[in-house]
Amino acid sequence: MKPPKFRYVAPRTLDEAVEHLAADPDAKVLSGGQSLMPLLAMRLAAPSILVDLQHVPGLDGIEDQGSSVLIGAGVTHREIERSDVIAQRLPILSSAVVHIAHPQIRSRGTFGGSTAHADPSGEWPTVLLALGATMHAVGPRGRRTIEADDFFVGPFTSTLDEDEILTHVSVPTTRTAWSFQEAAVKRGDYGLALVAATGIPRDGQLAEARVSVGAAVGSVRRLTDVERLLSRGPVTDALAEEAALTAAASVDPISDIHGNSEYRRKLVASLVRRAVLELKNGA
Amino acid sequence: MKKLDKHQHMSTPAVAARSVGTRVLRSEDPRLLTGRGEFIADIDLPRQLHVAFVRSPVAHARITNIDLSAIRDADGVALAWSGKDVAAFCEGLVGEMAVEGCVPTTMPLLAGDEVLYVGEPVAVVVAESRYAAEDACELIDWDFEELPAVINMDAAAAGGPVANPQLPDNLGLNGGASFGDVSAAFDQAAQIVEGRFYTCRVSAAPMETRGVIADYEWASKTLRLWSNTQMPHYLKYMLTAYLGFPEQSVEVITPDTGGGFGMKAHVYPEEMLLPLLAREVGRPVKWIEDRRENLIAGAHAHEQYVDIAYALDAEGKITGVRTHALGDGGAYHMPPWSMAVEPWCAVVMTPTGIYDVPAAEYTYKAAATNKTPVGAYRGVGYMAGTFARECLADDAARALGMSPFDFRRHNVVREFPWTNPQGIVYQEGSWRQTIDALEEMVDYPAFLHRQAQLREQGRYIGLGLSCFVESSGESSATSLEHGLGDVYHDTATVRLNPNGTANVTIGLSAQGQGLATTMAQMAADTLGIKVEDVSVQTARSTDHAYGSGTIGSRGAVVAGGAVARAADVVREKVRQVAAHMLEAATDDIELVDGLASVKGVSDASVSIADVATAIYFDLDSWPKDFEPSLEATQAYDPSQAMFSNGGHAILVELEAETGFVRFEKIYSVEDCGTVINPNIVEGQIRGGVLQGIGASVFEELAYDESGQILTTTFLDYGLPTMDVAPPFEIHHLETPSSHSASGVKGMGESGLIAAPAAVLNAVNDALSPFGVVLRDLPLTPEKVLDAMSVATTASGPDEGL
Amino acid sequence: MSTTPEERLDVSMTINGRRYRSTVEARRTLADFIREDAQLPGTKLGCEHGVCGACTVLLDDLPARSCLTLAVQAEGRQIRTVESLAEGQELNTLQRAFREQHGLQCGFCTAGFLMTATALLEENPTPTRDDIVETVSGSLCRCTGYQTIVSAIEQAAAEGQNVTNGGDQ
């Protein structure tokens, strides 16, 4: 299980990195490599060039900007796990990060890499969708921002162009009611189902609820039926139960060797119930 | 039944235990802890080339064209062969076992006209690096016509499309036997309990994959073959028998090995191919299996159905047992064994277990399918058979309204020696004591109380029990006792050095069992010296002591016996000279704690070191006609089959929302006779039980309907990790064997043999409020949650059950 | 390092305090570099896709899978492997604890556990049992059943694992 041949370059500027990506359609970004390297080892990916971003300045840092936190794409999962800013301003990220693989992976894997990978069972895509984060990308046509709702469009597919680089993610801190739930057989396993739910507590109710589901479905998506339900009134046990039923009815889960569709539907329902109950307690 | 003649090499000396029985720290560890172990991947020979295989991507196909020219033209490629190229040297490896109804198969080294399973080697490439070899493999140009893939063993056994043309009715094995009046037992039964139990396909998945290095020197016709095999001497024999390398010039070298668990107790096509490649290219060749190959093409294990039925009389005693096993053998018999290792072993070795059953009947079948061949994995056959029997025992207990402890106690054999209906003799055992010990360890009344309390909170815990008896110290006698005629024996060489230290060489390769430490303990006690003064070399080379393989829980018993016998010859020399030096009779000399002393005379002693020095350097100390070699090689083979016993009780909780099975605690009782080193015995229990937990809950090699294997990485084939691994409480019982050195019995397999039954029984106990009984492994979250959903109504599960 | 993409590159890194330089293919893994180019075979490869953890080394003091890192990514970095742990010719506290607790059998996975545990104890000399479980859960062992590995790390923590490189970051 040895990777196929490719060329490698470690540019020193973002512009240089973008140039390399633009020059060759089969060039790929290498960030932490924790998802890419297994694909290379199994020869499921065959990039012509790997553009290593580790020496590109400006992709690091976790910056509290008041109503949002700006997280550099090169920030490692481990840095998020240990960040006081994250713990205080975006505790849902602290709650989710420990589900990402193991400490030995979290030390290398990056926030931006996992986000751009758009793995349907990825913690970050699920969480960022529930938070309504904004992606900052740069490419040969300049800089642009992409809302999470427009970013994750399919399994391992985002709207980031092949020659664009995700540089930062701006994550709003206003959604102070939150819950992250994951069902995984073993610690660090890919989850069988993930649910993230957030909202803004307002007058004893939950405003602007966003609920997302990952892993159990082909690509991360929001559960808009559940969101609508949550906006109807105070979060109660009964509402949590109804949210679970609604979630079960509105997802079309995948079937694979780790769990069939019906099983995953039950999991999604349970996780949504748990998440809503946690929102209730936090709201 | 044929009786085994008693031979000299079946007796062992009596030895005073000093080091034996203590927690001696392992001599292997300092090397392994500092990165100084030498595993096969760590060995590099000058000028070596690297090997990679093209493996079949389809389950069953006829190859219509295969063209390796692009591979041969690729950068750095020295050689590429397909099946045609290698057939001239070797037709393939025969797999069969001398049991009724076994039809042999020949497994080609590289597929011929047909590929029969995903992962079957189709072509081999030799190149400058593993990277280059894998690059070249991608250039294969071949065409094939897909044939129907035979995937389901029930369908295969019933006929229909043929998986392997060598087995036209898809049966590699078909037979049975009956002992005692089984029909009467079932006709007159007050109650019959029966069930069909399924053990899923798994992989032993040792952390180190397989590997082979071959170096052939044509001028002297010398072949050196490095392999992390569990059977180096047998492999050497096969290299001569199949390939014609001159036996006297073949050396098989077994480096440090990262676990074997039976997967490495086969002879594989890769081990036969590498020497041929080395001879062809005139350079050493090295192949290290990658993990995907290991999961796809290393021997698979376990997959079979066991149908078992007990006839119970009005008092709840088992009066007869009927067992039928149907194994999924995969595409070929796995050389040198066969498909028999699962279904045949399961029904022949296990149906009576610890129970006093007077009549037994069994049948067995192994179906050929287009899947990877099934071979040995720790406690092969025993696991599935024990699983079926012990789970049926719980079914019977439920049917009779007895506790699982009481049902077992009610039926357990109480008097030894006991002869089972097949005529297999069990000399001794602590079978009833095991049940009592486990019941006390788990505090059963307290458990029942807690279980009831938690159920009221919607929490479901369960306790599962499983008792085992396993043959150990695999020997000629064991083989004969079970109706086979395989001959086993091992040798050991012991040399006492001039300063009173010893070097020991055994014929068994080690895969992590700590044989270098336990054998030092055996030698030290026999010679009367300190364990630190003994250095043991396991079978690193076939140039030294002979061994029949590190299989069947035989290491401690058989190597231990050979070491004790060889050390005893040396001990006699020391006693003779000490007697001469002390002017006493040889019979009065005892060797203990570094001293040769005259029995009963407190100040008449000389150090063993001084005696050894004298034998090497001081003629005056020798008695008349003394022969001074302080080196001896002796063989050992136990004269009778021997059986270890014990049991596990496993405590689980089922998560109501997810169906996850969580393991709270394992209680283990083990009786392997005299314990040489409790650390090592306990390590074997923990590791084996966790493999049993893996095979019960977390692991399954899955195939789709086209015969494509879906679990080719550790992401999909999930081994247990620490977060799901429970703590243990281990209790030792010691019922020494009457005929092995120091009373040692073999162990190491019982964790995997017996844990799965305890897991299923525990899950079924937890599920009892739902009125559901599961019988198929693995116990996936999906199955468990389904079971828990059955009766979950608004009012909750029925508490009456 | 070159500013044009290359298939072969010069790479240099410090492993266990010694500088290693070589010209390698871009695709060469750090694990292969350590084992073959630097001739330090104590680091093992058990799966080559980042699950088993046998290849774990310390990369700038943090545990990392050397099979999931390219050698060229480690340009200029500090690597520590299992060969760095012994103190002179004595086992260090952690290694001794593994021996005393029987935390290894075949020894193939052991380097990964030792390096992971070293990183844990350097960052947090008094880990909770759950911290240890979290760390140990990131590697596979097929022999021990894990409990004795956890006990060994607990013992090493209790005895005060020697911090050899100043701890985290």
UniProtKB/TrEMBL annotation, chain A:
Domain of life: Bacteria
One of the Pfam families matching this protein, by short name: CO_deh_flav_C
Chain ranges of the FAD-binding PCMH-type domain: 1-176
Keywords from the UniProt entry: FAD, Flavoprotein, Oxidoreductase
Residues annotated as signal peptide: none
UniProt cross-references to InterPro entries, sorted A to Z: CO_DH_flav_C (IPR005107), CO_DH_flav_C_dom_sf (IPR036683), Diverse_Substr_Oxidored (IPR051312), FAD-bd_PCMH (IPR016166), FAD-bd_PCMH-like_sf (IPR036318), FAD-bd_PCMH_sub1 (IPR016167), FAD-bd_PCMH_sub2 (IPR016169), Mopterin_DH_FAD-bd (IPR002346)
PANTHER family: XANTHINE DEHYDROGENASE SUBUNIT C-RELATED (PTHR42659)
Full protein name: FAD binding domain-containing protein
Protein species of origin: Nocardioides furvisabuli
From TrEMBL, chain B:
SMART domains on file: Ald_Xan_dh_C
Positions of the Aldehyde oxidase/xanthine dehydrogenase a/b hammerhead domain: 34-148
UniProt key word Membrane: no
Pfam family, one: Ald_Xan_dh_C
Keyword vocabulary terms for this entry: Molybdenum, Oxidoreductase
Gene3D superfamilies (UniProt xref): Aldehyde oxidase/xanthine dehydrogenase, a/b hammerhead, Aldehyde oxidase/xanthine dehydrogenase, molybdopterin binding domain
The keyword Oxidoreductase is assigned to this record: yes
Protein name: Molybdopterin-dependent oxidoreductase
TrEMBL record, chain C:
Pfam families for this protein: Fer2, Fer2_2
Keyword annotations of the record: 2Fe-2S, Iron, Iron-sulfur, Metal-binding, Oxidoreductase
Domain 2Fe-2S ferredoxin-type positions: 9-85
Domain of life: Bacteria
Name the record gives this protein: (2Fe-2S)-binding protein
